[in-house]
Design a protein that fits this description.
By secondary structure, the chain is mainly β. Helix content is about 5%, strand content about 35%. It is built from four helices and 56 strands. This is Rhamnogalacturonan endolyase YesW.
């Protein structure tokens, strides 16, 4: 037989093709974290009622744990006002409502009406006024007097009641950019309930300089106990919320230029409810040698960033960062069981990390960009993996704005839109693949492109639009130039009733919200916040923009012009779009946590939220809440409401007519295996707890103080599988297994379906 050899190029092509075909047949290993639910806040319905021309506008939250079939009833003064269950939206206008009315909302699951939300009164206008206690001013060593005004804010559930509180930073009038010398007054941090009750005040003291790049504060439930902590950099002389001084009260490390280039630096975790310092350690990334950061006077060494990341895919960790013009360092911590534990350190000066120097921004973003369910840190033009190693660097350098989200729903994964400062950068504005750093499109400007924004403002083009300064124009998600006219480049906000995003900005310091008219490239005013002011000078930011109350549309917080109050503005536009509260979307919630950091940026969701969107995905989360205030409860079966969990001869089952009654009463205590969980201690057998044995049976066993017992007797309380107003209990060591009854006996099992969900749902009833 005459055999003819293929040319080398052809043979190489066939070999490569064969390899690709073989690889295609190899199953991709599924990440162990891929289906791990994330810890989130246990929020209430967040009901808000506002007087409008045709009645009272009422809106409320759809929780991330709610079943898709859930509907709602609205009650005014205890009387239902809707004629049929509200199943396609989470807002309603009650034409018969009065300014004196009170409102509640009840969920309906499988035809059964659940418990009422906390009742709310009616706002007389589209904002809530939160009174503040303005700190007294002072005088610097150079004789300069200063006063205080409200600056950045964040929110968290500080007391575990399902409602957000506000943590507010007060800036002195002599706050400084790092580039400028001069003394500043101390930074003040307050916490307020929405009724204006001040919970605490922290004074960071003379050894923390005031300015946008110095104090970055995180408000988040880091240990999973259902209540948020507050984390920030501190120093000798910081006074916590209970009046206790951290370190040396008399130390003063300020030099004659008002800079602080020596002395210890601390990282402190504060209790969110009391402001008490829970733990203080040496701050890392440490200052080290000032000149190693790129100058010798403290400009570059004192550029700080911070954020929250789910590095294990399930629970939040603390991210602290320093430097971005040249040297960059990032350190990750866990706050668990009242201890700060360092996880890893990234240093751009370490071997192999040279490509990551000088790539950071004045802000960061955080999200799972590579699909392994664990978060990465998007640090300007570079990304760090969840393990603290560099994932990639685009090499495009420092910039003033970046945005992470699903901006092009027609391609897989997330994208990053960024602008860049260097005149020699290949692109002044560009969109790249968040996973790989591949540039999808870009515009060369040859100039410091200082502002850029991404939002869906034009329904004629799929996905979000992106625009920037310096002639970039408005571009589609694929980079097509739509118009050279540029809308405001500040914040984007979900405000009216459609799925497009509106634009938040200011005129002369007065906050405003506009709608982009894509037909004629003009702006239409929707809101002028007369009497309220923006912050951060020409940047014109709000103190905070987030989905704080009501349905999925966002609220905005601006301070009043006289610095005596905050105003929380909310929309009163009806919408038929029903979307889970944005605060239960992981990327959005993390965006709110880092929004106060340095150059504030608006939050984005991890899914495409805009015109033509697919149905929003249900968040893969579990919620944690602190134990019931009553502490002692009976656990009532959801589907056998006359039966309660009880022990009999130490076996646990559900039963009716329990005698003695104490056999069905349990104290909910902090989890034996961890404070983010709960344990059930018998009322009449103290020291005995509901415990899952190896065969899955639930017994009342005496605590032997072993770690295995603690794990077996600790559970995570989550929203009820059959009714979100009730509770289900996951095993501490296996979140797929729930306490459930079967033939009236209690087990810990995995399962699904309506029967299983009902068997695994219980109401906590006060005896």
């Amino acid at each position: 037989m005459n055999t003819k050899r293929l040319p080398n190029v052809s043979r190489l092509f066939l070999i490569c093709l064969a390899v690709i075909m073989v690889l295609a047949l190899i199953p991709v290993q599924q990440s162990a974290y891929a289906n791990t639910p994330r810890q989130m806040e246990a929020l209430d319905r967040g009901v808000v009622a506002v007087q409008v021309n045709n009645g009272i506008f009422v809106s409320w939250r759809l929780l991330g744990t709610d079943p898709s079939s859930i509907a709602f009833n609205v009650y005014r003064n205890g009387t239902k006002v809707n004629s049929s269950p509200i199943a396609t939206s989470t807002n309603y206008v009650d034409s018969g409502g009065l300014s004196s009315s009170v409102y509640t909302v009840r969920p309906i699951v499988n035809g059964v009406e659940g418990a009422a939300s906390p009742q709310v009164t009616v706002w007389g206008q589209n904002y809530l006024t939160v009174p503040l206690q303005r700190p007294a001013g002072g005088t610097t060593p150079s004789g300069e007097s200063y006063t205080y005004s409200p600056n950045d804010a964040s929110v968290g559930d500080l007391d575990g009641d399902g409602k957000y509180e506000i943590v507010l930073k007060w800036d002195p009038s002599n706050a400084k950019d790092n580039a400028h010398d001069g003394y500043t007054g101390p930074v003040i941090i307050d916490a307020y309930r929405l009724d204006g009750t001040r919970l605490w005040r922290i004074n960071l003291g003379r050894n923390i300089r005031a300015g946008a790049h110095y104090t970055q504060f995180l408000v988040y439930d880091f240990d999973g106990d259902g209540k948020a902590e507050v984390v920030m950099k501190t120093a000798d002389g910081t006074v916590d919320g209970t009046g206790v001084v951290i370190g040396n009260a008399n130390a003063d490390y300020r030099n004659s230029q008002g800079r602080i280039l020596s002395g210890p630096e601390f990282l402190t975790v504060f209790d969110g409810l009391s402001g008490r310092a829970l733990s203080t350690i040496n701050y890392e990334p440490a200052r080290g040698t000032v000149s190693s950061w790129g100058d010798n006077y403290g400009n570059r060494s004192d550029r700080f960033l911070a954020g929250v990341a789910y590095l294990d895919g399930q629970r939040p960790s603390i991210i602290m960062a320093r430097g971005y013009y040249a040297k960059t360092m990032v350190v990750a911590y866990n706050w668990r069981n009242n201890q700060l534990t360092k996880l890893w350190t990234f240093d751009s000066t370490s071997s192999g990390n040279g490509a990551y120097a000088g790539q950071g921004n004045h802000s960061l973003s955080i999200g799972d960009v590579d699909g392994d369910s664990r978060d990465e840190i998007v640090y300007g033009a570079m990304v760090l993996d969840d393990n603290g190693r560099g994932l990639y660097s685009t090499g495009l350098g420092h910039g003033d704005a970046l945005h992470l989200g699903d901006f092009n729903p027609n391609r897989a994964g997330l994208e990053v839109f960024g602008v860049h400062e260097s005149t020699s950068s290949a692109y002044g504005a560009e969109l790249h693949d968040a996973r790989t750093g591949q540039i999808l499109w870009g515009v060369h400007t040859g100039a410091d492109t200082g502002r850029g924004l991404a939002a869906d403002i034009d329904p004629r083009y799929p996905g979000a639009e992106m625009w920037a300064s310096n002639g970039v124009g408005v571009r589609s998600a694929t980079g097509q130039l739509i118009t050279s006219s540029t809308p405001s480049i500040n914040f984007a906000i979900y405000w009216d009733g459609d799925l497009l995003r509106e634009l938040l900005d200011h005129t002369g310091g007065t906050g405003k919200i506009d709608k982009w008219n894509y037909n004629n490239s003009s702006m239409t005013r929707l809101l002028t916040a007369t009497g309220a002011v923006s912050i951060n000078g020409t940047k014109g930011n709000p103190s905070l923009q987030a989905d704080i109350l009501g349905d999925w549309r966002e609220e905005v917080i601006w301070p009043t012009a006289d610095s005596t109050a905050l105003r929380i503005y909310t929309t009163t536009a009806l919408t038929n779009h029903r979307i889970y509260t944005l605060m239960h979307d992981p990327i959005y919630r993390l965006s709110v946590a880092w929004q106060n950091v340095a150059y504030n940026q608006p939050p984005h969701t991890g899914f495409f939220l805009g015109d033509g969107m697919a149905p929003p995905p249900q968040p893969n989360i579990y919620v944690v809440a602190p134990p019931s205030s009553s502490n002692t409860v009976r656990l009532q079966s959801h589907n056998f409401t006359d039966r309660y969990i009880r022990h009999i001869e130490f076996r646990v089952q559900i039963d009716a007519n329990v005698s003695p009654a104490q056999d069905a009463q349990f104290r909910i205590v902090s989890g034996l295996a961890g404070s983010s969980g709960i344990s059930f201690e018998s009322v009449n057998y103290p020291g005995h707890y509901l415990r899952v044995r190896a065969n899955g049976e639930v017994w009342l066993d005496q605590n032997d103080n072993s770690s295995s017992f603690a794990n077996d007797a600790t559970f995570r309380r989550v929203a009820g599988l059959a009714n979100s107003s009730k509770s289900s209990y996951q095993m501490w060591t296996d979140s797929s297994r729930y306490l459930r009854h079967y033939d009236y006996l209690m087990y810990a099992q995995s399962g699904s379906g309506s029967t299983f969900n009902a068997d695994a749902t219980f109401a906590e009833v006060t005896p």
